[in-house]
Amino acid sequence: MKAIILFGHGARDSRWREPFDRLAALWQEQHTHTPIELAFLEMMQPSLEEAVRALSAKGANDVIVVPVFFGQGGHLRNDFPALLEECRDKFPGVQLRSTSAVGDDLAVLQAIIDFGARAL
C-alpha cells in the first residue's frame, strides 16, 4: 500500500502546524485510499520515524516523503537524508522515497504568485 508523509520543520508555537493539519485533512478528503501522516524535524511530534512506524502499522510498504520546505537548506541537505536513511534501516520492509522541497516545484511557486495577485 502506498502512503505519504508531509515533512515540516516544526516550531515551538503549536499554532505553526495548523496549515500542516489542514494540508493533511485536504489530502485525506481528496485521496481517501492513500494514508497520510505528518512528521516534523524538531520541536513537534510526530518525528519522521514515528510517522513511518504509524504508516507501516497500517500496512503501508511504499511511502513517499514530501518535504514542505521552500528551499534545499542545511536541514534538507544534511539532517533529512540522515533521518531518512535511519528510517530505511529501521523499516526494511518499507520503501521510503522523497521528493524535492515543495518550493522547488514551479506549480507551488505559481500558486504563491496567484495568491499575491488575488490580493492586489
Structural class, please?
A: alpha/beta
Specify the oligomeric state: single chain
User: If helices are DSSP runs of H or I spanning 4 or more residues, what is the number of helices?
Assistant: 4
The CATH architecture can be given as 3-Layer(aba) Sandwich
Neighbour order of strands in the largest sheet: 2-1-3-4
Proportion of residues in β-strands? 15-25%
Given the C-alpha coordinates, what overall shape results?
Answer: globular
Instruction: Give me the strand/helix succession.
Output: EHEHEHEH
Mean of all residue-level pLDDT scores: 96
Distance between the termini: 44 Å
Using the coordinates above, name the CATH class: Alpha Beta
Biggest sheet features: 4 strands, parallel
Number of domains: 1
Alpha-carbon Rg, integer? 15 Å
GO molecular function, one term: metal ion binding
Protein name: Cobalamin biosynthesis protein CbiX
Keywords: Lyase, Metal-binding
InterPro entries: CbiX-like (IPR002762), Sirohydro_Cobaltochel/CbiX (IPR050963)
How would you sum up this structure, described in words?
With about 120 residues, the protein is an alpha/beta fold. The protein has a single domain, classed as Rossmann fold, CATH 3.40.50. About 45% of the residues lie in helices and about 20% in strands. It is built from four helices and four strands; from the N terminus they run βαβαβαβα. The chain has a four-stranded parallel β-sheet, with helices on both faces. Helix 1 links the parallel strand 1 and strand 2 (about 35-40). The mean pLDDT is about 95.
